[in-house]
Amino acid sequence: MRNVFETAHLGKLKVKNRLIRSATWEGIATEDGGITEPAYAIYEELAKGGVGTIITGFTSVSDHDFYIEGPMRLSHDSLIPQHQKLVDLVHRENCAVIAQLALGAYYRQGIQVEPDGMTTEEIQEVIGWFIDAAARAAKAGYDGVQIHAAHFFFLSRFISPRVNHRTDAYGGENRQRILLDILAGIREQAPDLHITTKINCSDFTNGGLDEAESLRICKALAAAGIDSIEVSGNGTSVPGIRPHVNEGYFAPFAAKLAEEVDVPVILVGGLRSMDEMQKMLNETNIQFLSLSRPLLREPDFPNKLQNRESTEAKCISCNRCYSSPCHRCIFRK
Asked: How many CA within 13 A on the CB side of residue 318?
């Protein structure tokens, strides 16, 4: 029987519990992607709050990625010491930390270029960015990296049949090749890193990635040696989630995936109560659970659960955090 608060193995990583802080965009980095003091404070608070593993917010692999505002970056070596400081803050609390490696969009001379319009050389350039960023993450001391292939950012669009109509080696049923090439390159350059990915179970859009296609890609990643898979989807932050009513809205796909791959599956999306989380762990093969919005309101929610001070998150899924500075919960004092 699995328990939320037991020591567990996330691949080769030994972590203190099965709760993961899912990547949550802060948008407060410096112009060159540097980590600010408010960001350090966020990560220190999260680590002290009792979560077993933290996945950083959107961390771009490119100096020229302006798709979202204020992302952290791992796009050049001068940023490594700042990430070392973040890692040290988290590790002091016996918490693992994984850098989410992401690309919002590919730009050519300041103009966004979609997958169909990219040359093979430009695709190889993007692959190189991810590999180089992972090597920097390893130098900074991160326990792992997450390849962000969800939420219709660049890699998510690349593997989506709605966006990618290429007919070469990176199109059709080979759309996932970009992910496989990134995975192989990271494994070669930083063999000790835990490598995970975040992927949509569905794009929830006409002609987009559906569950059957996502399952096929996830199985290809598992066969290629990915260490874990976090299941998400477009429109991930569903409003109006209530404990015991509509929790875990991606759970059906995650449970199916967990039956068909031999790597840990991580579920994110609408988890709010201790008993439902225990149910997810013990009635399916899902091994880890990710939280985002609940930790914006209560960074110490894991401690409250473990100490039996609470059984349900205070988050009401109003999504007003997304229009607030630092994506901070408006109900926090």
From this structure: 14
